[in-house]
TrEMBL record:
The keyword Chloroplast does not apply. Keywords: Oxidoreductase. Residues 465-486 are annotated as: Disordered. GO terms for molecular function: oxidoreductase activity. Residues 14-90 form the ACT domain. CDD domains: NAD_bind_2_malic_enz (cd05311). It comes from the Bacteria. PROSITE patterns: ACT. It comes from Catenuloplanes nepalensis. This is Malate dehydrogenase (Oxaloacetate-decarboxylating).
Amino acid sequence: MSPTRLPSAGFSITIRVSVIADASAIGRLTTCVGEAGAIVTALDVVDSDPSRVTVDLTCDTADSTHADQVVKALEELDGVEVRKVSDRTFLLHLGGKIEVTSKVALRNRDELSRAYTPGVARVCLAIAENPEDARRLTIKRNTVAVVTDGSAVLGLGNIGPAASLPVMEGKAALFKRFGGVDAWPVVLDTQDTDEIVNIVRAIAPGYGGINLEDIAAPRCFEIEARLRELLDIPVFHDDQHGTAICVLAALTNALRVVGKNLADVRVVVSGAGAAGTAIMKLLLRQGVGDIIAYDRPGALHRGLENLNPTWQWLAENTNKSGYVGDLKGAIRGADVFIGVSAPNLLTGDDIATMADRSIVFALANPDPEVDPRAAREHAAIVATGRSDQPNQINNVLAFPGVFRGMLDAHAENFTEEMALAAAQAIADVVGEDKINPTVIVPSVFDTRVAPAVAAAVRRAAASHGTSADFGGVDSDEDTSFGAPEQ
């Protein structure tokens, strides 16, 4: 009954079972779960009498089908009664994951008069006279809109705005936890580019930044470009730029470990959508030796016709040798494979054909492009997007600190220089004396990451003139946000 996927906390269940109270009862339960391919993470006795004991057995499974199989295996044990099964992920989401909390006390009429009418009118008039003061006197200085149309949610595809809301809530929670940024989901019931641009432009006065999330390519490129032209606050598409920053940071340290230079390596990228395109553009900006971009038409090259503008640009700026074959052929002799596409495209035997001391970033979630266990048999370094594998490349390393830095700098836009600075900051947090094949990026819970990224982004904003001067607000003021303890 061993599952093809690896057990994960994302499919954790708690099973309440009643079992005959004998010396081997608990052992039989845990053995059964283990033989079914799940991992027991907790076992709590909730009730007992002279003849039976009731326990809550918590375990990680691989997916919903596997969870059902584990429950069925327990039901088939003699003397065992399964009373209830709880999906711990669904329990966590009950009622949503975020809330609004007031920063000021409203205990009496005096406080109410200052926070609301009549006192608030004076603040409104001050902003009407000097609109830039909204950064200083409202939530705008620390608030980000997390905007989606639900068209490309995680690996689930076009599931719509309502179904995307749990992801956007989670994103907002991460902003607060790791960057001290107040973020709010803005889920739009439209996938029309013009309408999305107009809606975001209209709500922008209430926010200090816009985080575009899970919008399908190539529409996401146009939306981002147009909003950047229209708005005086940063517009950041995390699926593009957050991923690219984290990949560059990880690759910087991976190349240090294997003793190769970026300018000398050949990289194959599977997936030329939003993430893949941003990764390749940032690598090209850093001077990578060569890249082969692979997607549905095959390897992108100059001879292909009827490409969308993004793919056309990639065809003209990558693949120096004009390779036209399949993905397996593309990685033959390559130094680096980066997957942001689909599961199980490659095998361990394919990875064996790569160059000596190869690097594999198989980032499709939850199932990567190649089984990481098989890849590690041949590659020097393997990274995935999974939290249960070494070298997790997770966007939470980037976006909280990037927005913290942009908000603190009162930046009017997000720039390539900020991306490069953020990537270097993430890589440097690990330290050259600490990196090794299983540690090329810091933990997402490393309290040094967000402050380091924020500081790097602030410096980049100042040195490249992307900060705005908002009268009365000192750009060097203390903007520490109490990074969470590790």
